[in-house]
């Protein structure tokens, strides 16, 4: 849908959270732990881990923190075990998905439920909102810095991407999650820097909402994002700058 930028929305939504450096380090550590657990501790052989490390370095996360997170993921260091949970729900007529990594499922369940209740809603049953989204590999490239759209599209499609489009000042590339590592490697090999690269949920049919409803949705998403265990929050609503003010 015109005017709907997934990259812009996620950047806007995370701005407040990312300003809290200690919390950001905690979230990035969990990304690294999970990536190392799933694919091993060698970033040359584990592209999701390499990206997680690059992201951590970009915000000056200490090297020791990164190395500890890798070793916890591989089991070389003892530490807490994280469970990954997906919460689904509806608020003000729009769908919301919440990705969580927690070391205490019962505690997190109770706390997330309270956030939903304060928004006059509750977590839904499995697939109550999930069916409105696709799980996709997603990449965003600064179109003001890398301007050759045809060349970028060629690299992405050859590596297995499904689509590429321009949204504002960004080229947004999507692919099947199984192709994520191949597309990321191809972009890196072509020296095409991404300011976002992750597997995430994208709305199948982004929904236009009015400003007042949008402000309520943003407040709800911000409350979720402020929780230490929440890694990502997604919605099928189109969030504008005015709603996020």
Automatic annotation (TrEMBL):
GO cellular component, one term: cytosol
Organism: Gemmata obscuriglobus
Gene3D superfamilies reported in the protein's UniProt record: 1.10.10.200, 3.30.70.980
Signal sequence coordinates: none
Keyword line: Cytoplasm, DNA-binding, Transcription, Transcription regulation
HAMAP family associated with the record: Transcrip_reg_TACO1 (MF_00693)
Domain TACO1/YebC-like N-terminal: 5-76
Domain of life according to the entry: Bacteria
Domain called TACO1/YebC-like second and third: residue spans: 83-236
Principal localisation: cytoplasm
Family listed: Belongs to the TACO1 family.
GO molecular function: DNA binding
Compartmental location: Cytoplasm
GO-annotated biological processes: regulation of DNA-templated transcription
InterPro entries reported in the protein's UniProt record: Integrase-like_N, TACO1_YebC-like_2nd/3rd_dom, TACO1_YebC_N, Transcrip_reg_TACO1-like, Transcrip_reg_TACO1-like_dom3, YebC-like
Residues annotated as transmembrane: none
Name of the protein in its database record: Probable transcriptional regulatory protein C1280_35025
